[in-house]
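Q: Convert this sequence to structure tokens.
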Amino acid sequence: MQIRHVAVVASRSRDSVPECARATVRWLESRGIGVTVIRTDELDQASDHLSAVPTDLIVTLGGDGTILAASRVAAPHGIPILGIHMGRFGFIAEAHPDDLIERLAEIQAGNMRIEERLMVHGEVRRNGALVHEAFGLNDIVISKGAMTRMLHLTTRFGSGPVMDCVADGFIVATPTGSTAYALSAGGPIMDPTVQALLVVPICPHTLAARPVVVPDDQMIVLEVGTDGGEVKFSADSTAVFGLMAGDTVHVRRFEHSTRLIAFGSGTFYDKVHGRLLWGERVNA
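A:
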């Protein structure tokens, strides 16, 4: 893989990030590779820069949240991301700081692969008009505020039947997002190569409401029947937008994908076993 310019996205929440960023810049510049360092709070303004200066790779220094933030600017430009785990959990991140230079050299040599990760797009419609839209790598979430009563939500899958549900909200997750909030809400783990979306009710007030896996070409429509207080739409816990009774949220697969750099060692199931303790007898 030819690397001419790299954007280093640095989290501001980790004390070890600045030194790691400096070491990365030194190594890249010593090989004649252009570098731009972008803080996570500057990413919204970085999209135009990535267009003006052709960027071959984004390196994220932080946790999974840093990768999620970078994916929103990288995906429309098709820029692959190398995630460096410098956060608390790092499920999406592929490498550790001690391996960073070695991994960059492997990328230069072409000893890597690129995984295409499905993303999700949500539109909020009010009285038929589009009032808000956002996309994310993990999920689109409709949720109630802390002091809000349970929501009455109507859900429709394509041209299929309508499901009425009283719950704290709904999550529409990608396979990547199936190991995030959706998992905590009782959803299944999905291999990230599966081309599907996962719909998970949050604390439903019925035994009949269960997570549903739908094809990735399916449109999912959720209507807020009653709000009773604060109701929020979000994409990857950002782009938060207030919903009103009667609003409809249309969720579908996003037209672009996140391209994640991966290497030969380990599999998705190794991560699930090692970091989520899947298959472990935790009471032994």
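The first strand starts at residue 5 and ends at 10.
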